[in-house]
Amino acid sequence: MTAADQDRNISSSFAKGLAVLAVFDAETPSMTLAEIARRSGQDRATARRGALTLVQAGYLRQDGRMLSLTPRVLALAGGFLQANQFGRRVQPVLNRHARQMETEVTLAMLDQGRVLLLAQSTVEHGHITYGFTAGSHIPLAHTSLGRMLLAGLPEGQSAGVLAETDLPRHTETSLTDTAVILERVVQAREQGYCLTDSEFESGITGYAVPVSRPGRTPIVAGCSAPRGQQPEADAERLLRGLQLCAAELRQAEAVDHL
Amino acid sequence: MTAADQDRNISSSFAKGLAVLAVFDAETPSMTLAEIARRSGQDRATARRGALTLVQAGYLRQDGRMLSLTPRVLALAGGFLQANQFGRRVQPVLNRHARQMETEVTLAMLDQGRVLLLAQSTVEHGHITYGFTAGSHIPLAHTSLGRMLLAGLPEGQSAGVLAETDLPRHTETSLTDTAVILERVVQAREQGYCLTDSEFESGITGYAVPVSRPGRTPIVAGCSAPRGQQPEADAERLLRGLQLCAAELRQAEAVDHL
DNA sequence: GCATCAATGTTCGCTTTGCGAACGCTGTCA
DNA sequence: TGACAGCGTTCGCAAAGCGAACATTGATGC
Fold first, then answer.
1. Spatial distance between the Cα atoms of B234 and B127, rounded to a whole number of angstroms
2. pLDDT tops 80 at residue B128
3. Per-residue pLDDT at B194
4. R_g of chain B, CA atoms, integer Å
5. Cα distance between residue A17 and residue B13, in whole Å
6. CB B1 within 8 A of CB B12
7. Cα A179–Cα A181–Cα A182 angle in degrees, nearest 5
8. Which among A17, A59, A131 has CB closest to B88?
9. What is the pLDDT of residues A96-118, one digit of tens each?
10. Could you tell me the distance in Å between the CA of residue A36 and the C1' of nucleotide C14?
11. pTM (2 decimals)?
């Protein structure tokens, strides 16, 4: 019993159970007990109790020895989305701008050293992405959304957060040097937008602009498109669109209290 | 210690904590400890431990004495959405059909005596709804989605599920007699679609068709629109669109294992 | 302004829960 | 065929958390 974690106000069983649920946030569709235990860093018996409790509560389904999430977890997110009126204040704005820009527009924030997608426009003509949705995590260091988020942090913090994330090479042109990436972050902060090219998906350019007011928890909007014939013209058009979208979200105070 | 609930495989602390988290699924944006305790039917001290644990885990935020969900809960849903490839296999289909039909198209299933929205297309010109999103709950008895879901249950079960839900009158024309509602459910099962008018929102007609194959967990698709000049023509057009959408989802096996 | 009361947040002793070493089972390799 | 590695499950004992009791806050009456 170390001094610090001896907090009688925190329920450790509950915390461990939550870790079991959170383990499914990866793109692993279903897992065995042992796998859950390994990924959540818990004893197999502990993970088992957590998983069985989740099954009983209806958040997990058990098929033989495989466990997978049930749709009920959506209800947890639904609480958040309704409380913040995403359906009325955010989604329509994203959709409208996406329509005009002819790409998908994504709203995102920082979460545990990764980019958490908060909302995504739903348009027909968007280029085929990986199929990310609200609630998906994408890398911080090699996406324009991620770098723009880092740029939104108080001056000193960006380096710290970046240092704690690992830097897998997604493509051949992914930057690997932390210092170089930080340079791009600083550049993004100064110019008020961020561009990346082929660092996450080959041939795809990413665009991002800040949405939250300076000093607040960083929220950004972004989009991506295949690199076309006139990169500069595309960039200007898409960034202008994103800026308009961001301004409208700010004015609606849609993201002020996240 | 009663005999039944003495299951050493279930972690009661965890189950109680989950109940705290689930309490936020209502449209209550933020609550005090006492309110959480009341709504989750727990002792205040118990609710407090659960809430503080959720705060530490980053799922709840504490502003003074008010507690509210953080965006991190989206990540839990994200795991489900990515595991089932909603972004690639469901959302594009809904969007395309919604565009052609010029309405929102919603995918839904049963959850705890209510309709759980699984996914929703959004088009620009759709009529303004309550702002529901994926993860939202809507009533079972007075929506076409809900009645179509009841129709998808094995013959005897519909009545049982319906009996356990309460029937608030949303509008003046909401049906209140369980027997009459059940009649409509049977009718929906026989004709393969469901229509409701002004029972949930005044002046709005709801349309729904089944998506899942018979015998499976019921999944339905639906849409709604203001009652127009030619109700029959509208109904025919929208139902045809929904049927096409449902057929495509079935063919893509997008919802077979929910 | 002070006393009263109701409702909320917090503490701590006693009991219960759930931790994890140990077990048995199943499939795999030499 | 025997050894082994990995899995799910059990059970005695330590510690985690339940809830009665205690503070604390704030509204209401006089």
1. 15
2. no
3. 98
4. 20
5. 9
6. no
7. 65
8. A131
9. 999 899 899 999 999 999 999 99
10. 34
11. 0.92
Exposed, middle or buried: residue A190 (CB in 10 Å: 0-12, 13-18, 19+)? exposed
| Distance in angstroms (rounded) separating the CA atoms of residues A59 and B201 | 31
Q: Which residues contact B41 (CB under 8 A, 6 or more apart)?
A: B19
Residue with tokens 């019921």: B218
How far, in whole angstroms, is CA A101 from its chain's centroid? 22
The residue to which tokens 């993004």 are assigned: A188
Within 8 A of B81 by CB-CB distance, chain A residues are 74, 133-136
Number of C-beta neighbours around residue A120 at 10 A? 25
Mean pLDDT of B74-98: 93
Residue A74 banded pLDDT, cuts 50, 70, 90:
very high
Compute the 3-state secondary structure of chain B and give helix, strand, coil in percent, each to the nearest 5: 45, 15, 40
User: Are B151 and B188 a contacting pair, CB within 8 Å?
Assistant: yes
* Strand residue runs (E) in A23-163: 30-31, 60-63, 66-69, 106-111, 114-120, 137-138
Structure-block tokens of residue A59: 């958040």
> DSSP alpha helices (H): ranges in A1-41?
12-22, 33-40
User: How distant is C1' of D13 from CA of A50, in Å?
Assistant: 21
Token representation of residue A86: 């995403």
Nucleotide nearest to B45 (CA to C1'): D19
Amino acid at A185: V
Provide the sign of the torsion angle of the four alpha carbons A154, A166, B82, B40, taken in this order: negative
Q: Say what the pLDDT of residue B29 is.
A: 83
Instruction: Nearest by CB to B72, from A84, A111, A134: name it.
Output: A111
Residue B4 has pLDDT above 50, yes or no: no
Q: What is the pLDDT of residues B206-258, one digit of tens each?
A: 999 999 999 899 999 999 999 989 999 999 999 999 999 999 999 998 888 88
Residue with tokens 């340079």: A183
- Rounded to a whole number of angstroms, the distance from the CA of B153 to the nearest CA of chain A is 17
**Assembly ipTM:** 0.91
Q: Compute φ and ψ for B137, nearest 5 degrees.
A: -105, 135
Instruction: Identify, with chain letter, the residue nearest to nucleotide D9 (CA–C1').
Output: A45
Give pairs for A237-244: CB < 8 Å, separation 24+: A237/A101, A238/A101, A238/A103, A238/A207, A239/A193, A239/A207, A239/A209, A241/A97, A241/A100, A241/A101, A241/A105, A242/A97, A242/A101, A242/A105, A242/A193, A242/A207, A242/A208, A242/A209, A243/A193, A243/A209, A244/A97
First-to-last CA distance in chain B?
A: 36
Q: Which nucleotide is nearest to B43 (CA to C1')?
A: D19
The predicted pLDDT at position A73 comes to 96
